[in-house]
Write a structure and sequence with these properties.
- With 442 residues, this protein is α/β, with parallel strands linked by helices.
- It has three domains: 152 residues, NAD(P)-binding Rossmann-like Domain (Rossmann fold, 3-Layer(aba) Sandwich); 156 residues, Dihydrodipicolinate Reductase, domain 2, CATH 3.30.360.10; 81 residues, ACT domain (Alpha-Beta Plaits).
- Helices cover 35% and strands 25% of the residues.
- Strands 7, 8, 9, 10, 11, 12, 13, 14, 15, 16, 17 and 18 form a twelve-stranded mixed beta sheet that branches. Strands 3-2-1-4-5-6 form a six-stranded parallel beta sheet, sandwiched between helices.
- A hairpin with a 3-residue loop joins strand 11 and strand 12.
- The longest helix is centred in the C-terminal third of the chain and has 21 residues.
- The chain is elongated and about 85 Å long.
- It binds 1,4-dihydronicotinamide adenine dinucleotide, the ligand N[C@@H](CC=O)C(=O)O and sodium ion.
Length: 442
Amino acid sequence: MGEQSSKPYKPGQPLKVALLGCGTVGTEVVRLLVESHGDLAARIGAPLELAGIAIRRPGRHRDVPVDPDLFTTDAAGLVRRPDVDLVVEVIGGIEPARSLLLAAMDNGASVVTANKALLAADGATLFAAADRNGVDLYYEAAVGGAIPLIRPLRESLAGDRIRRVLGIVNGTTNYILDRMDTSGVSFEEALEEAQALGYAEPDPTADVEGFDAAAKAAILAGLAFHTRVTASDVHREGITQVSATDVASAKAMGCVVKLLAIAELTPDGKRVGVRVHPAMIPRTHPLASVREAYNAVFVESAAAGQLMFYGAGAGGAPTASAVLGDLVTVARNRVRGHRGSGESTYASVEVHPMGDTLTRYHISLDVVDRAGVLASVADVFARHEVSIQTVRQEGRGADAQLVVVTHQATDRALTATVEDLERLEVVRDVSSVMRVEGWGDD
Ligand SMILES: NC(=O)C1=CN([C@@H]2O[C@H](COP(=O)(O)OP(=O)(O)OC[C@H]3O[C@@H](n4cnc5c(N)ncnc54)[C@H](O)[C@@H]3O)[C@@H](O)[C@H]2O)C=CC1
Ligand SMILES: N[C@@H](CC=O)C(=O)O
Ligand code: NA
């Protein structure tokens, strides 16, 4: 705090806001700006005034209560206007969003963005531009939608030592898995519903292949451990391989499948492992009750213990709430002539490889039903030094199945075990392999 921003506020003047993008989130940002105009002015100490709204398709009907002359297809011109104080970016993607934000900051504007893909790919360039220009860069909407998560990590917990962050950070995939679990709808149907509800990214591959959750995990890990983590540091698996069989296997075990994001320090505190993958969790686990597009994140720290953040992780209005919260903050900073805290990456913690990470697996095997099968299967586990916690046989004859749950082992050993099981003559098919979290000793 305390640095002078590069574009001083003139008392009595409104703060001019440029909005980039007017889709699911942008529309709701405009609505809140217009509906709460008087309250926002009172909270900030100056009114906010829309300077322009950059759009891509001018002919399209937009249900927003503003003067149509505010719309422009010249986003680059808008962010360079001398009267623009604050820029809100809700376009998404890397380019042109990055160039627009850099130009905005070089023009002395503070920025608010919901763009986790950009922050996780190249946050360093953006934060450097914010520092260079003495402006704010806020991004509460980028992780967990409406849930206050960035600010608690960046500010409230800045005096503590965080050990682990674990949660559900993608609304679309949680919605799909929830619908598959509770209503038995297909993956494709559930995805279409999530798109219609405004939860999915413009390209839903970003959601279902885990890219969106990986970007959010990188942002959370960087904040939690005061280091720089990019999306490419995150081990990522999406939910496209999760089958109805996996969901049924989870049900039979008293579990539910969730796409989890986990960032944790190794016990010596020297490395951080960051991963996104589907996992079975017991139905009694608090994350199992996170339904539809809701998100929830647990933070475990040395002094505070366990904290849980829960709320709407996606959707136009919830995301706009977080954007407006940031907008009020950067506007207040501008009025008072200072900036908020920037990035904290002093720790430079190394990334822990996924192969060395301790996880546990649930494996369903379709097996030949004869004496000695269990021994051959157990031998494969023993050869890789993977300890079995439970094993049970289901069905008989052609339907015989072995369901194995392991104790924790390195992910490398578990992967090699599954590869060898697939080669075993008595194993007809490895029908389901999934990591297990939140069960017993982890
Ligand atoms: N929808 C959600 O639930 C959430 C979205 N976000 C993030 O918010 C951002 C926006 O997401 P949505 O509103 O859902 O996407 P959207 O696809 O509904 O809206 C993006 C808008 O930007 C416009 N656009 C694209 N290129 C442009 C350009 N060069 N100039 C001007 N406009 C341009 C598009 O035409 C579209 O109307 C993304 O970064 C997304 O990851 C973050 C949290 C939740
Ligand atoms: N597509 C994202 C939107 C919010 O970040 C999600 O589904 O969570
Ligand atoms: Na948030």
